[in-house]
Design goal:
Elements lengths: L1 H13 L6 H13 L1 H11 L6 H18 L13 H14 L4 E9 L2 H13 L4 E6 L6 H15 L3 E7 L7 H10 L3 E5 L19 E4 L3 E5 L6 H4 L4 E2 L2 E5 L2 H17 L18 E8 L8 H10 L4 E5 L7 H12 L3 E7 L5 H8 L2 H7 L2 E5 L3 E2 L3 E4 L3 E5 L5 H6 L2 E7 L1 H15 L2 E4 L1 H5 L3 H11 L6
Parallel strand pairs: 2-3, 3-4, 7-13, 10-11, 11-12
Antiparallel strand pairs: 1-8, 1-9, 2-5, 5-6, 6-8, 9-16, 10-14, 12-17, 14-15, 15-16
Helix pairs in contact: 1-2, 2-3, 4-10, 5-11, 6-7, 11-12, 13-18
């Protein structure tokens, strides 16, 4: 008992340093209730720091990005945005370093197999290089289709590079590396688990999904390279973007920075950043966020866009654990007469996360949030729309992991056509949803309320 109190008192001094108050309170609660369990957990995931060698590489990223941007041809005059949209664009540029560019062509792929076929078709047409970066890349039915395409590409003399997160792809990584390296594909795991003991936090992960082919075609979105029905027994509903135009060079730049972090190799060849064909396409920009820049996250962009809303906000995410900034932005929007909708899975694939998410429903539905529960497919897509112009599609969820811990990537579009296409996808999702009513929700059982509120106490840690 004395040792437990000593642990709790030391935690009371150390934990609040450089940590948001809500997260610090959650940790201190665990330390007071279960000091020995908290001590082990804090040793594993309590301190969001990188190993010294990785921190040294991170310090080189701004200079490397500056050299990369010198290779990217200026897309011409900056887009003429409204003041509200300019505020979002400027904030995203300040966070991620890339401005909005005109002349992008964006295709939305919301059918799983068709998205895989599109990637394979572009890899089959590659002439110079293929760059892939995914959180999950499995050696299963879907994964082998991409692997076969990469093998054929290397046989044609195409330079292929692959980054996969070591934890997300755990179980397939060794076999994947052995097979692809054997045919000349350069494969590296991101944040290798074998080196994690020299780092402080095991769950700082790279959650990005990027594909760049010949520097002219790019992909990003929520879809991984795996067959979810084989592993989770549930069909995933995702959204992947196929991109042409100057935003592809921004995707390429993010891949190059991540490649440097894992290999110390600099991808600075001019032929990796070919000039985009002049086009009248849409205005868009890429924003990358993550623990390399822990002071700012994508939540700031979401909040700014919400405060600018005049008519409607639609949030589509599998994981909804909003921080104080998100809650305030939602309440401000509904008080101002803006319709705010959340589309989320009826059944979460993570029990504790699902309970924590449900703990916010009463408060936000009382404030006016409309909640639509999607099923039976698992809704894994992550997209966000404000009114009829601003859309954000990518890898970021509405939770603390995406806001602070995971490396994420998103595309922000300022285009009425893109917003309308996304609205149509939302309408299709709503056909498989049922609306949750506040009256029904308040009648749930007492044990359910206790479980949800208990999970909420851990919301800033999960």
């Amino acid at each position: 008992m004395v040792a437990g109190w000593i642990i709790a008192l030391v935690a009371f001094v150390l934990v609040p340093f450089r940590r948001p108050p809500a997260e610090a309170r959650s940790w201190l609660l665990v330390f007071l209730g279960l000091p020995w369990v908290a001590l082990v957990a804090y040793a594993l995931i309590g301190r969001p720091y990188f190993a010294a060698d990785r921190k040294a590489r991170i310090e080189q990223l701004p200079a490397l990005l500056e050299r990369i941007q010198s290779l990217i041809e200026d897309a011409g005059a900056r887009p003429d945005l409204s003041p509200d949209n300019k505020a979002v664009e400027s904030l995203a540029k300040g966070i991620g370093g890339f401005p909005a560019t005109r002349g992008n062509k964006i295709e939305m792929l919301d059918i799983y197999e068709q998205a895989v076929d599109a990637i394979i078709e572009d890899i089959d047409a590659a002439k110079h290089h293929v760059h892939l970066e995914f959180y999950i890349f499995r050696d299963d039915r879907i994964g082998r289709l991409i692997i076969d395409a990469l093998e054929k590409a290397t046989e044609r003399g195409v330079r292929c590079r692959l980054l996969v997160d070591a934890l997300g792809s755990y179980g397939s990584l060794r076999k994947l590396k052995r097979r692809l390296k054997g045919v000349g594909v350069e494969v590296h795991d991101i944040l290798p688990l074998r080196r994690r003991l020299r780092s402080s936090r095991v769950d700082l992960r790279n959650h990005r999904k990027i594909a760049v082919i010949d520097g002219t075609v790019g992909y990003t979105g929520s879809q991984n390279i795996w067959d979810p029905t084989q592993h989770s027994r549930r069909v995933n509903k995702d959204l992947l973007l196929r991109i042409e135009g100057p935003a592809v060079s921004q995707l390429q730049a993010v891949f190059a920075l991540d490649w440097y972090l894992e290999t110390v190799g600099e991808l600075l060849s001019a032929d990796l950043f070919p000039a985009a064909a002049k086009s009248e396409g849409c205005t868009a920009q890429i924003v990358a966020t993550g623990p390399e820049n822990p002071e700012v996250g994508v939540d700031l962009i979401f909040a700014q866009a919400m405060y600018n809303a005049a008519e409607e906000i639609v949030i589509t995410t599998p994981y909804f654990i909003p921080n104080d900034a998100m809650i305030s932005a939602i309440k401000a929007a509904t008080l101002g007469g803006v319709r705010v909708c959340l589309i989320t899975p009826e059944r979460s694939d993570h029990r504790l996360v699902g309970l924590a998410q449900q703990s916010y429903y009463s408060e936000l539905m009382t404030a006016g949030l409309e909640i639509y529960l999607h099923g039976p497919e698992f809704l894994h897509a992550k997209h966000f729309r404000v009114d009829h112009e601003v859309t954000i599609v990518g890898t970021s969820n509405m939770d603390v992991r995406s806001f602070e811990l995971n490396a994420e990537i998103d595309l922000i579009s300022f285009d009425a056509g893109v917003a309308e296409e996304l609205r149509q996808i939302e309408q299709e999702l709503l056909q498989s949803c049922k609306r949750l009513s506040l009256e029904t929700w308040t009648q749930r059982s007492l044990p359910s309320k206790v479980a949800q509120n208990t999970a909420r106490l851990m919301a800033d840690l999960i």
